[in-house]
Design brief:
The complex is a heterodimer of chains A (795) and B (69). Chain A is of the alpha+beta class. Chain A has 26 helices and 28 strands. In chain A, α6 runs antiparallel to α8 and α11 packs parallel to α16. Chain A is elongated. Chain B has a domain of 29 residues. The radius of gyration of chain B is 23 Å and the shape is elongated. Classes of the chains: A alpha+beta (795), B mainly alpha (69). Chain B: This is Cbb3-type cytochrome oxidase assembly protein CcoS.
C-alpha cells in the first residue's frame, strides 16, 4: 500500500512521511491541514470538482509582517473606504476549476470576506472584505494557509491600476453593427429592383447608409489613418497607407455618388472592409494574460524589509524608503534588495539570479553583499550601502535596451510588401486616369477612385494577422508562449542561437555526483553518511541521498563549520567532508568543479564532484539547430563543464564562461552586427542579453514562476521542440507569402474591372469579402496543417 | 407608403438597442475575462446541493459545520 499512494490533496507521490487522516493519505502535514480546513468549512466539494488539485502550502508566517504597515496596504488595495477594502491579488497557483470554486467561496472561511472573484486567465483574485476584524495581512495568511499564497513583489507597489484597453472591442462592435445594417439597406440596390416605391425611397436608404458609415470611418477606422500618417511622416510606406487611401477613396467616392445621384456608393464594401481588418487585428491580439513578458528585477524583489531601529525595535518599511546606513534584517530565503555590508549572521548567498552560478557563496561579517542574492539559511543583519535603484544588479536596467521598443524597429513582411504594393497601385491608378482623360475625360475620376477602392489591400493586411495569430495559438498549445505575433516573424529570420548554460541547458538540480579517489570502506561510508545526516546544506542532502549504506552509527562528536565543511567522530574514527582547504588539501588550480573532499582520519581519500544534469534531448536539439544556425554558449558559470559541453555540442560551437550580465549584453550586441541572434536564457542574469537579442526566449521549469523580460517563454519540458518551432516560424512566413499571391490574383481581377471603368458596387461588394474570407480560410487551414507536424515527433 | 419610414425606424431602433446592450456589456467588463464565467456557471448546482445536505462524500461533516458558521 505504501508503494504507490499519492496525496489526496496535491497528488504528489507520498514518500516515507505519509500522513493518514480521515481514511485518506497525505504527503505531508501541510496538505493534511488544508484538507482539514476545507472539510471543516463545508468546502470539501473542492476535491470533487477536480481530484488531487491542491497545492502544498508554504510556511509564510513572518514573511507578510510588512502588511501591518498601513501605508503599504494603502498602496496595494484598490478601494479603501468606510471599513471596506477591495484588493486584487495575483495567485500563481490558480490552475483548475477547483481553484476557482474554492477561491470564490472564501466567505465560508471567514465571514468578513463579502465577495471574491477569480479571473482565471490572469490568475488573479479580487476580494472585498470588511476591515472591522479582518485585514489584508489576515487575508494573505488565510490564502497562504490553503495553498494559494499571493505573489506580492516590489512591482505591485505604486502600480497604477491601469485601465483595460477595450477600444478594439468597441471598434469591432461599431464596424460589425454598421456592416450588417448597411448590407441590409443595400439589398434593394443589389437586385436592381425597378419597383416604383423602392425607387422613390432610394435617397432615404442611401443617406441612412451614409449615416452608418460615418462612425466606421471616423471611429473604427481611425487607427489606420493615424498609422498611415505616422508612416508617411517617417517616410515609410507601410501597409496602412494603401488601406487608409482605400477607406478614404471609398468614403469620398460614395458620398459624391449619392449627392449627385450617380449610384448607390460603396458603403457596404467600406464597412465590410473595416470590419474584416479589425477582425484580423482582434485575432492577432491573443495574449497570455497570466504571463508577463515585461518583468524586471522589481518582480523578484520583496516589497518591504525589516529595518532595525536605533533602540533595537523592528519596523517594516517599504524597500524604496531604505536609506544608506540603515540596518535591515534579511530572513531565510529572502532576496537581498540592496547592496550592503554583512554585520551579523552566517550568510549563505545564492546569487543565481545575478550570475547564473547556482552554488551558494559563504560570506563573513564585514563582507559586501550584492542586491539580488538570496539568503539560504538563518537571519542576517546588514547595513545598507546603496539604495535600491543604485545597486549593482538594478543598474543593469538603466541600460537603454530596456527602454527600446523592438517591435517598432522591425519592418514586418506585410510592411515591406505594402511598400511595393502602394507604389504599384498608385502607378496603375495614374496610368489608367491618364488614358481615360485622353479617351473619355468624364470617366477619369471614376476609374481613378475605382482602382484605389478595389486595390485596397484588405486581403494582404489580413494574411499576416491570421497566419501568425493562429501559429501563436498552436505554439501556446505546445507550451511555447510568445509575447506577440511579430516574434514569429523575427524568429524566422534567426541565423545564430546563443544559449545560457545553468538553468537553460541544465536542470536546476545538481544530482549527478561522481567520486574520484581511493575507494571508501564500508565503515567509512557509514560514518560519512551518518555525518551528512545531520547537515542541511544542499550538497550534503544530495550526497546523503546517493550514498549506499544502511548502517546508522551513533556519533560521539559532530561539528558543522558553515561554509567550510562537516566533521563527525565515532569511536576511534573521524571523518571530515568539505572544501579542499578544510580537509587540508592544497586547492588545485582548477577550482572549476563543485566538489566536496573527504578525509578519513588523517588520509585525504578523494572527492565527490557534482555535475549539472543536462536536459533530456539537448544533444539532439543542438545537432538539429547546428545544421542551419551558428551556435554559442554564454554562461555566467565557471568553465568546469567545458569538456562535457564539448562532447555534447557541435564542434564549431563558441563557448564563453564567467560572463557578467553586462558582458552578455555586450557580446550579443557585437554579434548582431552580422547576425540575427536568438538568445535562450533563464535568469535575471540573462535579462540584458534577452532584451538585446533579436529574439529572447526564457526557459522555465514552471511557467507560473516568473521569468525575466523576454519575447517568449518556453516550458522546459518542450525544449526539444525548439528546432521545430523555429522551422514552423519559417514555414509561417511562406504561408503568408502564398496568401499574398492569392490576394494578388483577386486584385488583378478587380483592377481589370476598375481600369475598364465598369466597377459596379455589387462587384466590389462580392470581391472584397470573398478575397478576405478565402485568405482567412487558406491561412487557418495551412497553419493548422503545419501545426499537426508538432504532434508527430518522428519527423 | 410612408409606412417604410416606420419600418426603417423600427429596424434601426432594434439594431441600436442591441448595439447599446453590447456597449454596456463591454463597459461592465464582460469581455475582459471570457473564460472564468464559463466555469463558474457550472458551480451553482453544487453549492445548492451542499446546502440540501446531498453532498455524498462529506455530507455529515458539512452539515455539522455549516451550523457553526
Amino acid at each position: 500500500m505504501m508503494a504507490n499512494t499519492t496525496c489526496y490533496h496535491c497528488g504528489d507521490e507520498c514518500g516515507n512521511g505519509t500522513v493518514h487522516y480521515d481514511e485518506k493519505d497525505f504527503c505531508c502535514n501541510g496538505c493534511k491541514t488544508v484538507y482539514e480546513i476545507f472539510t471543516s468549512n463545508g468546502l470539501s466539494a473542492y476535491y470533487e470538482i477536480e481530484a488531487k488539485a491542491g497545492t502544498t502550502p508554504n510556511e509564510i508566517t513572518k514573511k507578510y509582517d510588512f502588511l501591518d504597515n498601513q501605508e503599504i496596504v494603502g498602496q496595494l488595495v484598490e478601494f479603501n473606504e468606510e471599513g471596506v477594502q477591495v484588493v486584487n491579488l495575483g495567485i500563481p497557483t490558480i490552475h483548475c476549476s477547483s481553484c476557482i470554486w474554492v477561491l470564490e467561496n472564501l466567505n465560508r472561511l471567514h465571514k468578513s470576506i463579502t465577495a471574491s472573484q477569480v479571473d482565471f486567465p490572469k490568475k488573479t483574485i479580487r476580494v472585498t472584505y470588511r476591515t472591522a476584524d479582518f485585514s489584508l495581512k489576515t487575508l494573505v495568511l488565510l490564502l497562504g494557509s490553503i495553498g494559494y499564497e499571493p505573489y506580492i513583489s516590489l512591482e505591485e507597489y505604486n502600480k497604477k491600476s491601469h485601465r483595460v484597453d477595450r477600444s478594439l472591442i468597441y471598434k469591432l462592435g461599431v464596424a460589425g453593427f454598421a456592416f450588417g445594417n448597411v448590407m441590409l439597406l443595400s439589398f434593394p440596390e443589389y437586385f436592381e429592383v425597378e419597383e416604383f416605391w423602392l425607387d422613390q425611397y432610394k435617397p432615404v436608404f442611401r443617406w441612412l447608409m451614409f449615416a452608418f458609415s460615418l462612425p466606421v470611418v471616423f471611429y473604427a477606422g481611425q487607427d489606420y489613418f493615424t498609422a498611415a500618417y505616422k508612416g508617411l511622416r517617417t517616410k515609410l510606406l507601410n501597409i496602412d497607407v494603401p488601406i487608409a487611401l482605400g477607406i478614404l477613396a471609398l468614403f469620398i467616392r460614395s458620398t459624391v455618388d449619392i449627392i449627385f445621384d450617380l449610384g448607390s456608393g460603396f458603403f457596404d464594401s467600406l464597412t465590410g472592409l473595416v470590419f474584416f481588418l479589425l477582425l484580423g487585428k482582434f485575432f492577432q491580439q491573443k495574449t497570455y494574460a497570466y504571463l508577463s513578458f515585461e518583468r524586471d528585477y522589481k518582480s523578484y524583489f520583496p516589497m518591504a524589509v525589516t529595518r532595525l531601529m536605533q533602540d533595537g525595535k523592528e519596523e517594516n518599511v517599504q524597500v524604496y524608503k531604505v536609506d544608506v546606513g540603515d540596518r535591515i534584517l534579511i530572513r531565510s530565503h529572502e532576496i537581498i534588495p540592496v547592496d550592503c555590508v554583512l554585520i551579523k549572521g552566517a550568510a549563505q548567498i545564492d546569487y543565481s539570479f545575478v550570475t547564473g552560478e547556482s552554488d551558494a557563496v559563504h560570506k563573513q561579517s564585514g563582507d559586501k553583499l550584492f542586491a539580488g542574492g538570496r539568503q539560504m539559511a538563518g537571519i542576517l543583519e546588514v547595513e545598507v550601502l546603496k539604495s535600491v535603484s543604485q545597486s549593482y544588479l538594478t543598474q543593469l536596467w538603466g541600460n537603454s535596451v530596456f527602454s527600446k521598443d523592438r517591435a517598432s524597429q522591425f519592418q514586418t513582411l506585410t510592411d515591406s510588401i505594402g511598400k511595393r504594393f502602394t507604389a504599384a497601385v498608385l502607378t496603375i491608378a495614374l496610368l489608367a486616369t491618364v488614358f481615360w482623360l485622353v479617351y473619355r475625360p468624364g470617366m477619369a475620376l471614376n476609374v481613378f477612385t475605382s482602382v484605389l477602392i478595389i486595390a485596397c489591400p484588405c486581403a494582404i493586411a489580413l494574411a499576416a494577422p491570421f497566419t501568425l495569430g493562429n501559429m501563436l495559438r498552436i505554439f501556446g498549445k505546445h507550451k511555447f508562449y510568445l509575447k506577440n505575433a511579430s516574434v514569429i516573424e523575427r524568429l524566422a529570420k534567426i541565423d545564430m542561437a546563443i544559449f545560457d548554460k545553468t538553468g537553460t541547458l541544465t536542470t536546476n538540480k545538481k544530482d549527478t555526483i561522481l567520486y574520484e579517489g581511493v575507494e571508501l570502506t564500508q565503515e567509512e561510508t557509514a560514518l560519512l553518511k551518518t555525518t551528512l545526516r545531520a547537515s542541511n546544506h544542499p550538497l550534503s542532502r544530495s550526497l546523503y541521498d546517493i550514498l549506499k549504506s544502511n548502517a546508522i552509527m551513533t556519533l560521539d562528536e559532530f561539528q558543522e563549520h558553515t561554509g567550510k565543511g562537516l566533521e563527525g567522530r565515532a569511536k576511534e574514527h573521524s571523518i571530515k567532508v568539505g572544501s579542499a582547504i578544510y580537509v587540508g588539501k592544497e586547492p588545485s588550480i582548477h577550482v572549476a568543479d563543485t566538489s566536496v573532499y573527504v578525509r578519513a582520519d588523517e588520509d585525504i581519500k578523494g572527492r565527490f564532484v557534482f555535475k549539472n544534469t543536462y536536459r533530456e534531448g539537448i544533444d539532439r536539439v543542438f545537432e538539429t539547430l547546428g545544421q542551419h544556425l551558428e551556435l554559442g554558449i554564454l554562461s555566467g558559470d565557471n568553465d568546469g563543464e567545458r569538456h562535457q559541453l564539448q562532447e555534447l555540442l557541435p564542434q564549431k560551437t563558441q563557448m564563453l564562461f564567467n560572463q557578467k550580465p553586462e558582458d552578455k549584453l555586450e557580446y550579443i550586441k557585437g554579434l548582431q552586427e552580422g547576425h540575427n541572434v536568438l538568445m535562450v536564457g533563464d535568469g535575471l542574469n540573462d535579462a540584458g542579453a534577452l532584451a538585446q537579442s533579436n529574439v529572447g526566449i526564457a526557459i522555465s521549469e514552471n511557467i507560473n514562476v516568473f521569468s525575466p523580460a523576454c519575447d517568449g517563454i518556453l516550458d522546459a519540458s518542450r525544449m526539444s521542440l525548439l528546432p521545430k518551432f523555429i522551422h514552423l516560424s519559417q514555414k509561417s512566413i511562406r504561408v503568408i507569402k502564398m496568401s499574398f499571391l492569392l490576394s494578388l490574383c483577386y486584385n488583378v481581377v478587380g483592377v481589370y474591372f476598375a481600369v475598364t471603368g465598369q466597377l459596379q458596387p455589387v462587384i466590389a461588394a462580392i470581391l472584397m469579402p470573398l478575397s478576405s474570407i478565402s485568405i482567412v480560410v487558406f491561412t487557418t487551414v495551412a497553419t493548422n496543417f503545419l501545426g499537426n507536424g508538432l504532434k508527430n515527433p518522428k519527423s | 407608403m410612408s409606412v417604410i419610414y416606420v419600418l426603417l425606424a423600427i429596424s434601426i431602433l432594434v439594431a441600436v438597442v442591441f448595439f447599446a446592450a453590447f456597449v454596456l456589456s463591454v463597459r461592465k467588463g464582460q469581455y475582459d475575462d471570457t473564460y472564468t464565467p464559463s466555469v463558474r456557471m457550472l458551480f451553482e448546482d453544487e453549492v445548492v446541493g451542499e446546502a440540501n445536505g446531498t453532498d455524498q462524500i462529506k455530507g455529515k461533516n458539512q452539515t455539522e459545520n455549516s451550523t457553526n458558521q
